[in-house]
Amino acid sequence: MKIAILAGGFGSRLGIETESKPKPLVEIGGRPILWHIMHGFQRWGLDDFVIALGYKGDMIKKYMADYARLHGNLRIELGNNEIHHHDAQPLDWNVELIETGQRTQTGGRILRLKPFVGNQTFILAWGDGLSTVDVDALLQFHQQHGKLATVTAVRPPARFGHLEFEGDRVAEFSEKPQTAEGWINGGIFVLEPGVFEYIEGDDTHWEREPMENLARDGQLMAYRHEGFWQCLDTPRDLALLNRLWNSGSPPWQAAKPL
Fold first, then answer.
1. What is the pLDDT of residues 188-217, one digit of tens each?
2. pTM of the entire structure?
3. Helices (DSSP H) in the chain: which residue ranges?
């Protein structure tokens, strides 16, 4: 099964972090968030990726092309200009890197991936979020309902500390990982090829007409994920994800150990 990842946005809300690199290469624990996302799918036995590039896509190409050199030891024979890799960390991934335009919107990027995902069910993921979504359960849910699209619904992370009162006294203060109510688009979908008919072109926002019309036609179902989910939109999000990594037990790695 193909995993399509949207990795072409500008990531402007991250400020200085994305002035020199695309958002998918912003690092958590010394590794790009794109690496964490792809490793997450690998844990479920999925390793065939199609990545939609846009802003500074050449840097993502270079990262993938140079992966072995960046993460293994090298012996360089300058006399004959040969480079030998050893003690590397091989990744058995198939990765297609597809230019989808600098200004193309999310729907347009998805449409441009049509020739590369084939006439089959595929997973679509945003290139800026980490979670503990049970991918096997998500796929099973999608197969059982038989509709064109499944969106993973998540509870948005709490932005402020949660207060419990006894009268005017604060009985409990906690940084709760999720709010108690409300569901949002978690940026992980399972899609059938028929969804391409809902996308007009490069200027189409996936989250607008395509999703709205799929819902209108009864073709959009929601898989509710109650566990950890965190997007990378702001410097605050980046600091949180790095704190979780530095804790030694990042939750997104606990979803399914390798």
1. 999 999 999 999 999 999 999 999 999 999
2. 0.88
3. 33-42, 57-65, 67-71, 106-112, 114-117, 135-145, 209-216, 235-246
